[in-house]
Amino acid sequence: xxxxxxxxxxxxxxxxxxxxxxxxxxxxxxVNKGEIFGFLGANGAGKTTAMRMLCGLxxxxxxxxxxxxxxxxxxxxxxxxxIGYMSxxxxxxxxxxxxxxxxxxxxxxxxxxxxxxxxxxxxxxKLGLESESRKLVGxxxxxxxxxxxxxxxxxxxxxxxxxDEPTGGVDPLTRRQFWDLIYEAADRGVTIFVTTxxxxxxxxxxxxxIMVDGKIGAMGAPDFLKKKFRxxxxxxxxxxxxxxxxxxxx
Amino acid sequence: xxxxxxxxxxKASQLRKVYGKEKTVAVDDVSFEVNRGEVFGLIGPDGxxxxxxxxxxxxxxxxxxxxxxxxxxxxxxxxKKIRSNVGYMPGKFSLYQDLSIEENINFFATVFGTTLEExxxxxxxxxxxxxxxxxxxxxxxxxxxxQKLALCCALIxxxxxxxxDEPTTGVDPVxxxxxxxxxxxxxxxxxxxxxxxxxxDEANLCDxxxxxxxxxxxxxxxxxxxxxxxxxxxxxxxxxxxxxxLRDLNAYEYxxxxxTFGEFLHLALKQNNVNSKLExxxxxxxxxxxxxxxxxxxxxxxxxxIKLLHx
Lengths: 250, 311
Description:
The complex is a heterodimer. Chain A is α/β, with parallel strands linked by helices.
């Protein structure tokens, strides 16, 4: 799937400044269709700011970026229609039922009523949530919420889905089931852009970008990075890079 | 400290907490003991009941059943004594956002009838890192600085026991390591530490751990003993495409369990014999896998947790 080399994310010298502070400093990278791309970095390294620009939520200070073929300056609305997004903090509405959330987000993403019905049914069946479909999302265990949230974020078959620490706080079994969903989506050609603090999850990515002080500290496949830093695990690679960070989140 | 007779500082007996009209059981008859001077970890995901246990032990929540003693005091009857003996750092930042670092510390010191100067020694090492910003409002601090301030406020009255509820959740691996180094030094000052975390790799940094899920304790012991009790022979397996490897191993008729662990999969077979590895290799080769690596591997606490969830 990566052989097609269709680029879905392209950034060149992308920067974001807040006053004197350079949150994101001249980053350039590309992500291929169907790739699982891990975006790592210490707290304060600029991950969230970069991700907000890529999602069309924040206008860059300088540089260029194309997301799913759309420009981050002029076509932010088209970007939003072609991506999915979930994070641990924002996912679903707790006081709506499972079905209502699917209807709501399906509607937001511009699906027709019949599509919402059909895809919603398939989704509920796949997650085994049949008996919970009329329950409030707030009453579901966190692991189910996260899996549902991911499935809703890709219900419109977006080109890219952005996942911001999607597995924080869930049990180790659910964390792995969640990654099964990620793999499946990537296999269907959905590009995955994911941030995580779990270094074992970094290994599951095709390529990783590690941000240090707003810049790209290192980028490449996990094996490549481990060789480059003569490290036995991604944890060591991360530690090696982040330790040298100037911008300490004191 | 394990050479002497363990001196129990926290004892929870059949502790129970039930919430709401639907009578959701958050803490389900939980019993455990914490020895004086140790770092005791409650390891489990969100919703396991960790916070409810912490809030009952720190006298902020009344149990619906069972009892607990903290440093010789009953959590219901002697709650006032407990409050002056424990430090509590909740998972959610709970200091006054519009007070400065200095004002927050002075506030908590005054509430406990002490001063920053009096107990400076105990927080010194952490405080000096945030001191340059002492006039800054707490709400304007970065995550790491907030955490250090919260720790200072929880320690300002020189508690005997420190309860830390998920202090490292959402914190990057480097900052997590630094935080645990800080805890180690607090332990050296004879403070007992009860800490909760969803990160299984932090289990090894505790003297003893309780694995907890859905309000129930699955296992309590030292991390080494928990790992030693793992019943199956584990192998680590790697090949070029991890996703297809996982799919094929889950479909393999002799597979008992198979889960991803970083760049490897951890596989347990229903039966192990001298030919197992060879047969496995043949099977995977027939499925088209390349660069197959198969090695025996020691389980981790995370393997044990998954095994316990599975049972």
